[in-house]
Amino acid sequence: MLVRIDPFGELDRRARQAFLTGTWSRPAVMPMDAYREGDTFVVAFDLPGVDPGAIEVDVERNTLSVKAERRPLLTGDDVEMHLSERPLGVFARRLVLGEDLDPDGVTATYDAGVLTLRIPITEKARPRRIPVAAPPERTQLDT
């Protein structure tokens, strides 16, 4: 049997969760990192313990939606839960994509509990070098 040493820790955790989300079972956010890698914008979401089949990624116009559900691992009549700290339920996040990102080219991979979305940057938004022309040769008549 598992014994908790901190009797007020559970109450504190529950109070913080309720204050941040208004519910007792969902975390406030789905943690993410976003960065640019060359000509691609990358967004990585932490989704440990989520089955890949329970993840939905949708794009509508310029809004990207990610929805994932973490379900209980143990089910059955003979299961008696002693401690449950890992949040269960549905997690969702929406991102508005700027006009410089191509919503038709989004790809998604899921590895080691991390959902990674790669969004191509449009051609017009990519940095480009502008050539600098030298002035034309001057002749005696030009002066």
TrEMBL record:
Residues 23-135 form the SHSP domain. InterPro entries: A-crystallin/Hsp20_dom (IPR002068), HSP20-like_chaperone (IPR008978), Small_HSP (IPR031107). CDD domains: ACD_sHsps-like. Pfam families: HSP20. Coiled coil: none annotated. Signal peptide: none annotated. Belongs to the small heat shock protein (HSP20) family. This is HSP20 family protein. It comes from Pseudonocardia thermophila. The lineage of its organism: Bacteria, Bacillati, Actinomycetota, Actinomycetes, Pseudonocardiales.
